[in-house]
Amino acid sequence: MRHPRRRTLMKLAAATVLATTGTACSPSGRPAGGAGSAPPPPGGTPVAVSLPPPTGPWPVGTVDLHLVDRTRPDPLVPSKPFRELMIGVWYPADRRGTSPVAPWLLPGAAADWDAHSAPGMTVPAGAVDWRGIRTHARTGAPAARSAGRLPVVLFSSGDGGTRALGTTVVEELASRGYVVVTLDSPYEADQVEFPGGRVERAVPLPDDLTPEVIAELLEKHARARVADARFVLRRIEALAAGRNPDAGGRPLPAGLPEVLDTSRTGMFGQSLGGSVAAQLAHDDPRVRAAANLDGELVGPVAHTGVTGPYLLMVSDGKPPAAEPGGSTPRPGSPGPRITLLLRDARHGSYTDLQVVLPQVTAHLPVPAAPELIGTVDPRRSLAAQRAALTAFFDLHLKHRPTTLFEDPGARFPELRIVNRADGGRSSRTPSAPA
User: What digits encode the pLDDT tens for the residues 397-434?
Assistant: First the structure.
C-alpha cells in the first residue's frame, strides 16, 4: 500500500481509495515528478478552461458567507478557540440583475491551487489559467422571489477538496429551484480563502500513514464536518428568519431570506462528503434525504444505516461486489434507497474534474487523468449526475414523482442500477412530508 498524495486532487477521494492508485510519492507526500511531469502548453500560454452552463430555467446567483462558531474550538487546530467556516449560497436569481459573474476559485485560493493542488495531479504549475475559470452565477444577485420558497440542499466535497469542486452540479440544482449551500472544511481542505484574501491551508498529515492512521483521520474529519454542517443548518435557519449570519456583516443578496424553506432540507456530497451527508441524514431530522457520490461510509453511519431516502452513485473504480461492506447503508436501513453505477467513471468523475481535465488534456499530457476521471464521456457523465440528483431531490423534497430510477439506462446508457430498496415506496410515489 503506497501513501496517498496529500496535495492532490486525488485527495478528494477517501484516503483508503487514494492508496489504491499505486502512484509513487516523494518523501514530502507529493507525487514523484510533481510539476515537472508534463511540459508547459505551447507558447507558454496557460490553458483556458470553462464550465458547462446549467440547464434549468432559472439564472443563478451566489454569495460567500464567513461563519464563526464560538461555541467550540477548532476540531483540527485545537489551539484555535473557535471554528470559522466559509460557505457559498447558490440560488435562483432575479433575471434583471447585472451583478458580476463569480469566479470558480477566489484569487488567493486559485494561486494556491496552481502551486500545490494542480501539480499533484500531474498538471504543471502555471499551465492552466485556474484564476480565469468562471461560474455561471452572478455574485450577490437579487434572489428570485417569484420562485417562491425553495428547498435547501447542503453540499460537502471530498476529503481535502475545496467546495468549488461541486460547482457544475450545484449550479444545476440552483437553476432548477433549489438553494444550495456549499461547505468548506478549513485546515482539512487544501486551501480555503477567507475575506481579505487570507488563505488557510491544510494541517500536514502524519509521516506514517498506515491504514489505521488513515482511518482515524477520516473519522476525525468526518466528525468535524458533521458538526460544521449542523452549525451551518442553524445559521441558514437564522438567515431564513431575516438575520445576517456573516461574521463581517457583509450585505446579503436582496430577497434571499424570503426564498429559503428550511423545512425541506437535503444534503449530498462526494467521497467523504457523501458519508457526511449520510451521517447527517441519520442524526438530524431536519435532513430529509441524502445523496452520496462515490463515498465509502465512515463513522457510526457505516453501522447504523440511513433512516431516510438515500441515493448512492458509484464508479467502476469501486466494484459493486464490495458495496455492501462499505458504501451502501445496512440492509436494515428503512428508507427508500438506490445505488447507481456510472460506467467507465472513476472517483474524480463525481467532481468538476470530469469536465475540467479533458479540456486540459487537449493541450498537454496529464498522466493522472485516467485514474482520476476514467474514460466516460464527460458531457454524458455530467448530464447523468445532474439528472439523477435533480430527480432524487425533486422526489423527496418537492414531492414530484419520477420514472428515472425505474430504468435509468433508457435515458442514460452510462447508468445501471446496482441495487434498490423502496422502503415501502416507489419512485413514482414521493416521500410524504413529516
Answer: 999 999 999 999 999 999 999 998 875 355 565 554 43
Q: Is 241 exposed, middle or buried (0-12, 13-18, 19+ CB in 10 A)?
A: exposed
14 falls within a domain: no
Range(s) of the domain holding residue 399? 57-421
Distance of alpha carbon 350 from the chain centroid: 8
Rounded Cα gap, residues 232 and 226, in angstroms: 10
Give yes or no for residue 241 having a pLDDT over 90. yes
Asked if residue 290 lies in contact with residue 328, where contact means CB atoms within 8 angstroms, the answer is no
pLDDT at 250 (0 to 100): 96
Grid cell listed for 258: 424570503
Other Cβ atoms closer than 10 A to 27: 8
Residue range 113-161, pLDDT digits in tens: 999 999 999 999 999 999 999 999 999 999 999 999 999 999 999 999 9
Confidence of residue 305 (pLDDT cuts 50, 70, 90): confident
Strands, DSSP E only, in 198-331? 199-201, 260-270, 287-293, 310-315
Secondary structure tally for the chain: helices H, strands E: 12, 13
Phi and psi (nearest 5°) for 218?
-65, -40
Q: Is residue 17 part of a domain?
A: no
Do 19 and 214 form a contact (C-beta atoms < 8 A)?
yes
Domain count, the chain: 1
Q: What are 306-318's pLDDT values in tens digits?
A: 889 999 999 986 6
Count how many Cα atoms sit within 13 Å of the Cα of residue 178 in the half-sphere of its side chain: 32
283 in a structural domain = yes
How far apart, in whole angstroms, are the C-alpha atoms of residue 280 and residue 287?
7
Look-up: residue for cell 410524504? 432
Q: What is the CATH number of the domain that holds 91?
A: 3.40.50.1820
Q: Nearest CA to 192 among 347, 348, 270, 88?
A: 88
Whose CA is closest to 337, among 301, 297, 276, 289? 289
* Residue 139: strand, helix, or coil: strand
Does 20 fall in a domain? no
- pTM metric for this prediction: 0.89
Of the chain, the percentage scoring pLDDT greater than 70 comes to: 83
Q: Determine the pLDDT at residue 30.
A: 33
Kindly state the cell numbers that stand for 271.
467521497
C-alpha cell at 397: 423534497
Question: What's the rounded Cα separation, in Å, for the pair 250 and 62?
Answer: 14
Q: Is 232 helix (H, G, I), strand (E, B) or coil?
A: helix
